[in-house]
Predict the structure.
Amino acid sequence: GPDADPPPPFRPSFHHQFLRASMDAMMAMLISVLAFGAAPTEATIPQASENWHGETVQDLHREYYNIFRKGNRNAASHLWSTFLLQRSSQMNEMELRYMFSGFCAVSGSPVRPSDYTRYKMTLDTVSGDTLRGFTYFCCWPCVCDTQDFIRVDTKNVTTADNVEHQMHFLVIGNPCEGDTDRIPYQAPEVICHGKKLEGAIMSDNGFVIISMFFPYDEELKAQDEIMFADHCQERVKMGYNSGMGEIFRQVAGIRPLVTRTHTGELCAVSGTSRKQNTDLKLGFEAGNDSEIEGVDSPTCSVDTVEEG
């Protein structure tokens, strides 16, 4: 159903373990980064005026009905993201990243971060590259939907220490820029005002932020997306009758972000910056610096994209 059952009490010990295990990966994000081209979105994220005193993901989950005013989180993870990003100035970097591990990017379900809900994935970026990192899901079918529709982009975020961090986020195309009649009634929080998606914060290249893409850390245990390859194929045959079914896929499929040619080669989403930041990619994935310069990727065009 649309309403998620309250999760069991949160174990503070995992909170502390998460922060300690993430520290090395966070340090990797301090390397110099290459900025994307002119962004068709606000550079500064508006901050909430009221103070929020959340310390654990359990506290985030208690905000459910303040975040989802219609009580339905189907295909509306962008509202979780916006709630946190508008309070980024009240948290340090690790606290903010920790909070983003508290919900599923695909279903919008509240999630308790653990080795079981953490998934290792390699995803296409909107600039025509690939990036390995972690996501948090409620269940394995979300792996399939992520592979099909979710890409990675960046956004600068200012934290409590008044430092601006370039972070990676999971993004989808803006459904309000397509045929809005295709938005299913089961996703009542996906509301368009013209071409603007209500409550959404857009990435550097103007796509809907639905969650964070976490830096890869080989010391953290996670479920590997490769484990679910056969399951995803079977799910296609069964008509996506597991997980969130067609709801998320219908919303994300209105304005899909194409990053592959018909031959499977990487290409940048049309209209985005095409410069790959190799330094940032290596630092994000392996925690080491590199002096390799970025390279240009071809731009996806109508003639090169896969059909369907």
Summary: The radius of gyration is 18 Å. The chain is about 25% helix and 15% strand. The beta strands are 118-124, 130-136, 151-158, 164-172, 192-193, 196-197, 208-212, 214-215, 223-224. The longest helix spans residues 12-28.
